[in-house]
Each structure stands twice: as structure tokens, then as C-alpha cells.
UniProtKB/TrEMBL annotation:
Listed Pfam families: PNGase_F-II_N (PF22252)
Keyword Signal annotated: yes
Protein name listed in UniProt: GLPGLI family protein
Signal sequence, start to end: 1-22
Keyword match Signal: yes
Keywords per UniProt: Signal
Top-rank taxon, per record: Bacteria
InterPro entries in alphabetical order: GLPGLI
Length: 260
């Protein structure tokens, strides 16, 4: 009887301690997240070399590796509240690499995205070469598979989730439920917490949070972009496919990048 009573008391202490710990967890619902985007330029350039261009691209690639770092790095921010977010890039351009091999659609992608979590829609300002489009549509539906793997990002414990979008783009995300907003960088949302780490392993690009600041975000810092030719995702797809119909094998990676 004493043994049974001892275990009952032990379980009660554990339950009460766990409950008190859960009550003391602070959940963030508004703030600013700074992300660092890293594009593996060596891998991206290597993918562009084929039998038709290897005679000059191989030599150009070797020269590029001697004079340029492996990763192109860019900074972005996500302003968020419980029901809205605005993902954007700094107004001041980073140092430009004038080497023509450093130009890559995915590495240079700089979408501005306003998301309304309550209405489940978004407004994306997307630059496609010389044109700018304003894409208004519902948020991307992603079939996430949550795993048991965890890692720390910007001081937060995050859980891993995997998904496949656009039939072939493999996505790895790390989210923290301590930030109680279902948002993330670019168009990636839909997890039970904020995405602080994002990787497209086969596309050789990552976005990882470097700093999370819990601050009050004024409504003006969540304002959706307004400049651009209005369209939706279906309309943009038709525009892209029409423009690239004669591009052959070069079209597919560019289409994927502009569709993110």
C-alpha cells in the first residue's frame, strides 16, 4: 500500500510540475524576424553546365570559384501579428556581384508577400525580369509531415516538417510553437507555429532566422504591396509558360523559381 501511495504522490508531483511549466511558457504573437537566405552558387552554376555549353562554362566556373564565395547571402524580414504578416527585403540593395555567372533567378528572388491568416489569402509582389506582378490568391496549401527531429534556431527549439510542393520541390521546414503564428518566409505557412528554418535541398537554397524580436508591429508595417500588374496564381502560371515555351530545358528551373 505504501509503495502504491508513493507512486501516486510521484505522478501527482510530475503532473503539477509539468502544468506549472506549461503555464510559464511565453508564446509570442507579434514581432519581427530577420532571416538570412543562403544560395549555394557553386551547385546552382554547376547544374547549368551541359554538353552544349561545357566548352566555355567549365572554364568560367573555375574562374568564378577562385574569385567568389560558395554562398550568395541575402537578408530579409518578416513583420507579424497574430493574424497578418509582411515578408520583405531591405530597400537598400546588397553588394552586387557583377560576374554574369552570379545571376540566378532563385538566388536573386525577392518577393514581397502580405499574408492574412484569418482570411487565408495573400498578396505577392513578384518581379519577373522587366515586369512586376501583383498576385492575389489564397495561401499555398502544403501537406506537411511533422517529424520528431528538433534543432535550435535563433534561440528557439524547432521541430522539423517535410513536404513536397509543385509535384517535385522537396521542402524541409523547422517551426517553433513558441511563436504562435502559422507563418514563415516567402509563401511557406501552415504549420502549428512560425517557420524559423526553411530549406529546399535539391534547389540548393535555405532561409534561416538569425534574430527574433518581440515588438509591437504597427498596421502600416503590415500593409500589402499595391504596385504591379494584377493577376492570380493561375494567371501568372499562364504568363510564365507562354513566355518560356521555346526555352527548352532551361525553362523548368526558372518556372519553379518564379512560382515559389
Amino acid at each position: 500500500m505504501k509503495t502504491i501511495l508513493k507512486y501516486i504522490i510521484l505522478f501527482a508531483v510530475i503532473f503539477i510540475s509539468s502544468d506549472l511549466f506549461a503555464q510559464n511558457i511565453h508564446f509570442i504573437q507579434n514581432g519581427v524576424i530577420e532571416y538570412e537566405k543562403r544560395s549555394n552558387m557553386y551547385a546552382l552554376i554547376k547544374k547549368k553546365i551541359n554538353k552544349d555549353n561545357e566548352s566555355y562554362l567549365n572554364e568560367a566556373f573555375e574562374q568564378y570559384k577562385k574569385n567568389n564565395p560558395q554562398f550568395k547571402v541575402a537578408k530579409s524580414t518578416l513583420n507579424f501579428t497574430r493574424d497578418k504578416s509582411l515578408y520583405k527585403w531591405p530597400t537598400v540593395e546588397e553588394t552586387v556581384n557583377n560576374n554574369w555567372l552570379a545571376s540566378d533567378v532563385l538566388a536573386d528572388l525577392k518577393n514581397t508577400i502580405a499574408t492574412n491568416f484569418d482570411l487565408q489569402n495573400s498578396v505577392t509582389q513578384k518581379s519577373v525580369y522587366e515586369d512586376t506582378y501583383l498576385v492575389k490568391d489564397s495561401v499555398r496549401k502544403i501537406n506537411w509531415k511533422i517529424t520528431d527531429e528538433t534543432r535550435e534556431i535563433a534561440g528557439y527549439e524547432c521541430r522539423r516538417a517535410n513536404a513536397v510542393i509543385m509535384d517535385s520541390v522537396y521542402v524541409v521546414a523547422y517551426y517553433s510553437n513558441q511563436i504562435a503564428v502559422s507563418g514563415g518566409p516567402e509563401s511557406f505557412t501552415g504549420l502549428p507555429g512560425m517557420i524559423l528554418g526553411l530549406a529546399l535541398p535539391h534547389e540548393n537554397v535555405t532561409w534561416f532566422a538569425t534574430k527574433v524580436s518581440e515588438v509591437t508591429v504597427p498596421e502600416k508595417d503590415l500593409t500589402a504591396p499595391t504596385k504591379g500588374k494584377p493577376t492570380d496564381n493561375k494567371g501568372l502560371k499562364a504568363i510564365l509558360l507562354g513566355a518560356m515555351k521555346d526555352w527548352g530545358e532551361y525553362a523548368h528551373p526558372i518556372f519553379k523559381a518564379f512560382s515559389l
